[in-house]
Each structure stands twice: as structure tokens, then as C-alpha cells.
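TL;DR need C-alpha cells for one chain.
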Amino acid sequence: NTADRSVGGIDYALRRRFAFVRLRPHELRFPKDGGKSFETTLFKRVSKLFIKEIPADGAPVDRSDRDFLSEAYEPEDVWPGHSYFVTTPEIDVWSRWQFEIRPLLEEYVRDGVLRSEVKDEIKKIEEELKDRHR
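>> reply
TL;DR here they are.
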């Protein structure tokens, strides 16, 4: 709590000085010869923990009916962004999952953003990912 309060002043100062545009997570498309790709399947699976379905541009976001997200949070405030799902020849999807996405989801569980019932779903996502990339 102390750390959150100390950062709060910085947050207010930034908001007074800059305009912010909310950018929702969305699917990215890359040229086939560019080396980057977007893990659409994993993006959709993880998104379902937070939202019912990925909305069209400008459409409202509906909370997931799976009831994993705490009522204290809005999906758009905690839904993992699209950059987590970009892979390159140097950073594969398993590395993204293991070192970025899963730790974020586990932190959300510890902090009460996601309810503990989501743990089984996280394990299922991981097993599907392992099967896909064996």
C-alpha cells in the first residue's frame, strides 16, 4: 500500500501534463516475411479469462461470464495487452507464456484481480500450449 500511494502522486502529475488514449488489446497482423507473428489462439484463450468475446472496434467490452475476474476490476484495466502475444525468431510463444503471461496471471491471482478458481484454467491453457508446440 505504501508503494501504491507513493506512485499515486506521479500518476496524478502525469495525468495533469499529458493526454492519455485508452488502447484496448487487439489482434495484430504482420507481414509474413517480417519475422514477427501474433499468437492469435493464445490471445483469445487468455482474453476469455477477462472478457466474453473480443469486441469490434469501439464496441463495449462485456465481462467474461466465467466469473474469474474480481468485481473490483474492469476488464479493460487488467486485460493483458496485445504485445504479450507477439513472437519473433528470438522470442517464441513458450518463452512469452513462461516468463511474461503466466507470471502476470499468477500475480493477478495473488493480488485478487483474478479469483483462485482461474488456476485450473491457466493450467489448461498451458497444457494446450505445450501440445501445440511439441
